[in-house]
């Protein structure tokens, strides 16, 4: 029978405890955080609206937190590359993900498998804001309202087309949702980017386009396309078109942006980041810039409130994708 001496037992126990503590102990203590630069992962390319917002907010938050904030772009694969990088980051309080609605609420219903779990891998930090979507038409299309567009589409089945940035994107889903609720058959023409889909409608190769307000506003302002509805639940100040829901009750879409981080980041660190974010969002020049970009924001809110919102959105998008018959692939 093998025996272990008291000295050997104590040595092994001490070694095991040390290894366990080294593995479990976070690299940053809440009271000392931050002590080095903070990283924000964005799953869009440089120059895209989320990237611009991340950099503007990062500059302001860096002044509050006393450390530089670096934006890292990880675009591609329907936001999957960025979400995966954020999910796999060390939970030390130094990596945050500026997530859009897609990776946290939509992708689970449009992709059969994901290399991250939107529910289990992330902890909510703070809301940034978001934007609605314009339903807009080429200037030569003889409609000025959504009702008139529906009537035109009914009179010409599959001859009216709408452009989007992809079948799994918000614009594509919204177009199919309008088709379903209105009982029409607009032809869906997906492109590889929002910019390309917008240009195709301006050129008249498609009659309708669905675009996030920050993307569409410069073209609307110079009269290149004509908006006929917006995807808000009610009329929004500054957008002089009626809501889609006025014609098709319940049909509304808001593309939001929110910060999340890894599940095991200590709550006090999350709270510090949240407070710095809220302060940045409420500074007058930042609020003005957000409005000019076509976004809306009411501040960061609390992590708990954001968690409840994301959960509700996750469930809502499940119902939307089911209603339009979208199949994950």
UniProtKB/TrEMBL annotation:
The keyword Transferase appears for this protein: no
Superkingdom field: Bacteria
Keyword presence, Signal: yes
Keywords: Receptor, Signal
CDD domains: PBP2_Bug_TTT
Signal peptide range in chain numbering: 1-24
Family: Belongs to the UPF0065 (bug) family.
Cross-referenced PANTHER family: BLR1237 PROTEIN (PTHR42928:SF5), TRICARBOXYLATE-BINDING PROTEIN (PTHR42928)
Identification of the protein by name: Tripartite-type tricarboxylate transporter, receptor component TctC
Organism field: Noviherbaspirillum humi
């Amino acid at each position: 029978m093998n025996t272990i001496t008291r000295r050997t037992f104590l040595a092994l126990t001490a070694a095991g405890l040390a290894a366990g503590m080294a593995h479990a102990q976070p690299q940053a203590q809440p009271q000392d955080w931050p002590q080095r630069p903070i990283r924000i992962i964005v799953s869009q390319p440089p120059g895209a609206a989320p990237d611009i917002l991340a950099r503007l907010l990062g500059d302001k938050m860096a002044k509050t937190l006393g450390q530089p904030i670096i934006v890292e772009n990880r675009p591609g694969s329907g936001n999957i590359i960025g979400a995966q990088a954020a999910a796999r980051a060390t939970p030390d309080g130094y990596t945050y993900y500026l997530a859009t609605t897609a990776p946290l609420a939509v992708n689970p219903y449009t992709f059969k498998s994901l290399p991250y779990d939107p529910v289990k891998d992330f902890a909510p930090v703070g809301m940034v804001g978001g934007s609605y979507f314009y339903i807009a038409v080429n200037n030569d299309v003889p409609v000025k309202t959504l009702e008139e567009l529906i009537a035109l589409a009914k009179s010409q089945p599959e001859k009216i087309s709408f452009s989007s940035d992809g079948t799994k994107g918000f614009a594509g889903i919204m177009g199919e949702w309008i088709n379903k609720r209105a009982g029409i058959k607009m032809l869906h023409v997906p492109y590889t980017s929002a910019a390309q889909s917008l240009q195709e409608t301006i050129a008249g190769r498609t009659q309708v386009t669905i675009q996030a307000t920050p993307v569409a506003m410069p073209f609307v302002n110079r009269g290149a396309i004509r908006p006929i509805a917006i995807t808000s639940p009610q009329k929004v100040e500054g957008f002089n078109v009626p809501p889609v829901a006025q014609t098709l009750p319940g049909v509304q879409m808001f593309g939001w942006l929110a910060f999340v981080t890894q599940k095991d980041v200590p709550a006090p660190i999350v709270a510090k980041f949240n407070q710095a974010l809220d302060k940045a969002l409420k500074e007058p020049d930042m609020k003005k810039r957000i409005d000019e970009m076509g976004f809306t924001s009411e501040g960061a809110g609390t992590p708990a409130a954001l968690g409840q919102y994301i959960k509700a959105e996750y469930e809502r998008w499940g119902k939307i994708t089911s209603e339009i018959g979208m199949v994950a692939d």
